Amino acid sequence: MPHTITLIPGDGIGTEVSKAVQQIIDAAGVAICWEVTDARGDIENHSADFMQSPVIKSILKNRVALKGPLATAVATGPPSLNVQLRKALDLYANVRPVENLAGVASRYQDVDMVLIRENTEDLYAGLEHTVVPGVVESLKIITEKASTRIARFAFEYARQWGRKKIHAIHKANIMKMSDGLFLTSIRKVAEQYPEIEYKELIIDNACMQMVLNPCQFDMLLLTNLYGDIMSDLAAGLVGGLGVVPSGNIGEGCAIFEAVHGTAPDIAGKGIANPTALLMSAIMMLRHINEAQAALNIERALQKVYKDGKHLTRDVGGKASTDEFTGAVIRQLRS
Ligand code: NAI
Asked: Which of 81, 177, 237, 297 is deepest in the core (most CB within 10 A)?
């Protein structure tokens, strides 16, 4: 039986990298019936009743989606489509594994960590208003329920994947109530997992520690905003956003997506690197119990990087998207 999976190609380089990933998954022998949706058009046409839009219905039915990047205007315009999708589907856990890929130049070797970011609240609730002209208030929402839920997810993830240590990242010395609640909620959960070492770090110190010695981290557990920033920082230590994946996981469904954006500067030129979306697809394949195909693609990808002859420009090569994709497919078939 083929899997039916929702595909949101996205904007900019999204169509180029998602086509490459489809070709590679096909070559790996996984039968997938892709339900391709235009998230932007769907959401804009159903702004009054978002839950009835075809993209939401498709993901709720299939329970899994692979998503390319969607553009968001800065400072003006409607809320981010990415944030709207995560909220509508209650995809509360953002999982970002960060590790070195041999062949990609980076400041450190032996980085291997997973960042777990709470995905539904914090300053991302988007609750902003003008109090009086010249004064804007932005509300940071932290609840015990969401903090406990993400903590439970992180500790269960650690158990499942054999991770040994979790650092909760906070600024509870200043935001004593909100970040304080995040911490007290996590501590209660941590007590139930004595085999997993639990530590806390203030966000500013955590950033410095991350830059000085990223290999000390195993898992990090963060609120939405800190998670967004620190996961990009971590990605920068292993070669950048082009080589790290992510998954947005909820109780009912999941969306796997690259962490990078639409790359308008290179869109349409055929030179985008599909690695991040491919790595997200590898996470997705494990999620749908296609572990062997995931491993085969992972090994093929690693060989192409080690070999170094068919890499795209962002990682120091000269290959086009198609040449890189062809090299991964040849490795898969060899
Ligand atoms: P960006 O990630 O699109 O680009 C930053 C730099 O990285 C650019 O030089 C770009 O060419 C390069 N780059 C990114 N992905 C690449 C790839 N796969 N291969 C080769 N080079 C790559 O970030 P930017 O410019 O800040 O954002 C552009 C748009 O993307 C914005 O509208 C933003 O809102 C959106 N965005 C969407 C995300 C999502 O859908 N999850 C995440 C981040 C940004």
From this structure: 297
CA-closest residue to ligand 1 atom 24: 261
Is 263 in a helix, a strand, or coil? coil
Q: What is the pLDDT of residues 114-168, one digit of tens each?
A: 999 999 999 987 789 999 999 999 999 999 999 999 999 999 999 999 999 999 9
261 CA from centroid of ligand 1 (Å)? 3
What's the pTM?
A: 0.93
State the residue range of the domain holding 208: 121-237
Nearest protein CA to atom 8 of ligand 1, as residue:
263
* Residue 129 CA to ligand 1 centre (angstroms): 28
- Residue 286 is which amino acid? R
Per-residue pLDDT reduced to its tens digit, 181-193: 999 999 999 999 9
The phi, psi pair for 235, rounded to 5°, reads -60, -40
CATH code of the domain containing 227: 3.40.50
The helix or strand, by DSSP H or E, that contains position 276, with its residue range, turns out to be: helix 275-287
Query: CA dist 195 to 2, 156, 162, 198, 218, Å?
Result: 39, 12, 10, 9, 14
pLDDT score for 74? 67
In terms of domains, do 125 and 233 share one? Answer: yes
Total domains present in the chain: 2
